[in-house]
Amino acid sequence: MGAGSGFAESESTSRRSPVAKQTKQDHIASDTALQQGIDQKYPSTTWVVGQDSYTTAQVDAVLQKRIAANKASDLAHAAWLAACATATSTMEQTAPTVHAVEQRIRAESNNDAGALAVFGLKPVKKGKKTAQVKAQAAVKSAATRKKNNTMGAAQRTAADKAAEKEAPAEEVATTPAVSAVAAQAQPAPQTPSKQ
């Protein structure tokens, strides 16, 4: 940095500057090298920046302030990462216990909003089924009923009434014929089956 060159970036310069792409370690290394170079090559120079002038000692103080801020930020970031890892681990380890406690409270309060509010919990809402899910369920249900020949209460009642109406007429018409056929038919001798 020569006399008359600025070390503070203006707003328009900072937008184009590659400074934003550097890591904290890059900033620390760059500022440290700059400080050492200025101390070696320009130990007693006055630096003019805009309307202000700075001694080499003042420039050193500015660079040292930047280095200290980046180091402190780096340490704080490392501590934050460690704290986040600890928090995540704690949440994962304690989740089953907290979930079980919440479930018991929900069960004992019958999912009542007022009772749950005391514990900071909200009632569990049942999800609404989409039209597509309902249509798929209806098709599956109909297929199952047809496969198992199951009927609802109204269908059973209607089937029973229809069977009662048809049964007496069939019995009267078929009973003599069935009796005559049964009397003529002799049962065939049964032979044991081979296994």
**Number of helices, counting only DSSP H or I runs of 4 residues or more:** 6
Q: What would you call the shape?
A: rod-shaped
Extract low-pLDDT stretches. Answer: 1-15
- Measured on Cα atoms, how large is the radius of gyration? 45 Å
Terminal Cα separation, in Å? Answer: 106 Å
Mean pLDDT: 79
Structural class given helices, strands, pairing?
mainly alpha
Percent of residues in beta strands?
Answer: under 5%
Oligomer: single chain
SSE topology string: HHEEHHHH
Order of strands across the biggest sheet? 1-2
Q: Helices, strands, pairings?
A:
Layout: H1 11-16, H2 24-41, E1 46-49, E2 52-55, H3 56-108, H4 113-117, H5 131-148, H6 153-184
Antiparallel strand pairs: 1-2
Helix pairs in contact: 2-3
Task: Please explain how this structure is put together.
- With 195 residues, the protein is mainly alpha-helical.
- It has helices spanning 11-16, 24-41, 56-108, 113-117, 131-148, 153-184, and strands at residues 46-49, 52-55.
- The chain has a two-stranded antiparallel ribbon with strand order 1-2.
- The longest helix is centred in the middle third of the chain and has 53 residues, at 56-108.
- The protein starts with 10 loop residues before the first helix and ends in an 11-residue tail after the last helix.
